[in-house]
Amino acid sequence: MSDENETTYDRTGCFVAGCPLPGSMATSTNGSSQWFCHMHHGAPATSWADITARVSNRLPLLEAARRLSNLPPRTAVPTAIAQTFEASGRGAMLLVDGKRVPARTAGRHAMGVLEKEIRTPGQQQALETVKAAMASGFRSMGELIAESEEIGA
Ligand SMILES: [Zn+2]
């Protein structure tokens, strides 16, 4: 395994080789922590490569959804971000029940849709765990990354 590929976000990347997402959720095994992105966290190793491929295919959308989730409450979806989704034919992802919603709501909704597509279908229980973690953790990913650096991962 080599680290030749610089990650898009940070050197503290997901444990899965080739995954462009930051490692934001720790799995402790044998006393050592491995950091996974929220897409790979809890997923069986046999599905890692498929998940990585789906993440890579959707990276601009994942980044756009993350940015929306980080905007202040009651902010409208910025045009540039909406265009990112529309350019991929995924503008509907920003709508909830067919209606326009504030940026944060749209971002979380889009992320939920992306998660379902990326994670192996049928892992609904794991998905719920991820959703709960994301609701509290994903918007403070920078802090989590900082923490993981302090730990020395
Ligand atoms: Zn990952």
Task: Outline the structure in words.
The chain is mainly α. The protein has a domain at 44-139. The chain has six helices and four strands; from the N terminus they run E-E-H-H-H-E-E-H-H-H. The protein has helices spanning 48-57, 59-69, 79-87, 103-118, 124-137, 141-151, and strands spanning 25-29, 32-36, 95-96, 99-100. A two-stranded antiparallel sheet has the order 1-2. A hairpin with a 2-residue loop joins strand 3 and strand 4. Helix 2 (59-69) runs antiparallel to helix 4 (103-118). Bound molecules: zinc ion.
Strand content: 5-15%
State the end-to-end CA separation.
17 Å
Estimate the helix proportion, in percent: 40-55%
For the biggest sheet, the summary is:
2 strands, antiparallel
Order of helices and strands: EEHHHEEHHH
Task: Annotate the secondary structure layout.
Layout: E1 25-29, E2 32-36, H1 48-57, H2 59-69, H3 79-87, E3 95-96, E4 99-100, H4 103-118, H5 124-137, H6 141-151
Helix pairs in contact: 2-4
In short:
The chain has 153 residues and is mainly α.
Keywords:
two-stranded antiparallel sheet, 6 helices, disordered N terminus, binds zinc ion, elongated, mainly alpha, 153 residues
